[in-house]
Design brief:
extended, two-stranded parallel ribbon, 5-stranded parallel β-sheet, 447 residues, Zinc Finger, Delta Prime, domain 3
Amino acid sequence: MADMFKQRAKKLAAAQAPLAERMRPNAPENYLGQEHLTGPEGALRAVLDGVQGATVRNMILWGPPGTGKTTLARLIAEHSNMAFETLSATSSGVKDVRELLERARMRLGGDAKPTLVFIDEIHRFNKAQQDSLLQASEDGLITLIGATTENPSFEVNAALLSRCRVHVLKPLDEAALNALTDRALANGVHVKDVRADDEGRKALMRYAGGDARRLLSALESACDLLAPEPKDKRILTSQVLERAVGARMLRYDRAGDEHYDLASAMIKSVRGSDPHAAIYYALRMLAGGEDAKFVVRRLAILASEDIGNADPGALNLAASAIQVVNFIGLPEAEYTICQLAAYLALAPKSNSAAVARVAAHKVIRETGELPVPMNIRNAPTKMMKEMGMGKDYHYAHNYEGGFYPEALLPEQIKGARIYEPTDHGFEARLAKRLAELEQMIKDQSAS
């Protein structure tokens, strides 16, 4: 009797679960969007097909949210006849890990069933936690699948990473998202007879941004709005979707013209020293679903391209902002982006680094691979020194002011002008310093 009530409760709970949970595929052929992993020639196909001799190895699934990392791990466990255990790096402690490993030990000693441990956000596990799992894996107690949205090269313990195969999951393309939409409208949503018109479907694709969970959550909300309508009026339009998720989230296409228009507007607002406009356009992009990493990367480029040595601190702030955005994510990262945009907009401007880049490339194109002057070549061996390499090199620190006046460019382009500092901000000091050094070289040549 108790088992019957448990089964009934489980069935009712499943029916009330969010659409994204109800739509999880239970067979590899229903898994969408990662053909390079699960397709006929996919790296994980043999494991999913239960091919004899195909062994599940430790792996890291790296990809954006909503690309099917958890679902793929479940499918691997189910089709490999493994017990499936999960840990969340954000909520699981040492005790949870210890208890899980004990269950795996009992299971292996009882019915000899292996255990697959799936760790969501594995990059948030500390080194000690990662090491304990690594040891259990090496002892054959568990097989480990970690999921992360962050680059595992930087965020996962090197010892653990070296023992895992990294599989990259991609944002779902439009074909996969459309197939998922059709499947959900036919068999997933509680509101029946809903159909999407072309504009509604396009808006849904834009809003999802390659994230299946985001798509299904929006679709479920939109269908709930259509529930009171007569069956022939249940049409998912862009207007219905806007009501369901907020209009501000829909008028931005990350692959379309507005993506480039808003990015251009933010860049030109910083260049034009308008902090109000710079912050406005940055947050317009974020409100539309743009990746915060894209926004902060664009600002970091500006720090060198449009500010440069007029305020060297701008690049330091931009580099710090990239780290903060990667670490904390949205929405809190908006504070950092606003701070950076305001600082860059009000910083003194110089494009001398950008101009120098163009000038250097022009000289290289026009003159080719000119030989490095003999006196500043590397000469680590006796033979190279006998050939004259490094001869007459002047170690600058041995001279007054840490400078020896000599030309260091190849003879063919001696005197070429590549870096022309402005008189803006800190760069004015560099311009003065450059003029002094060049005058010393002229005086040395004349003497």
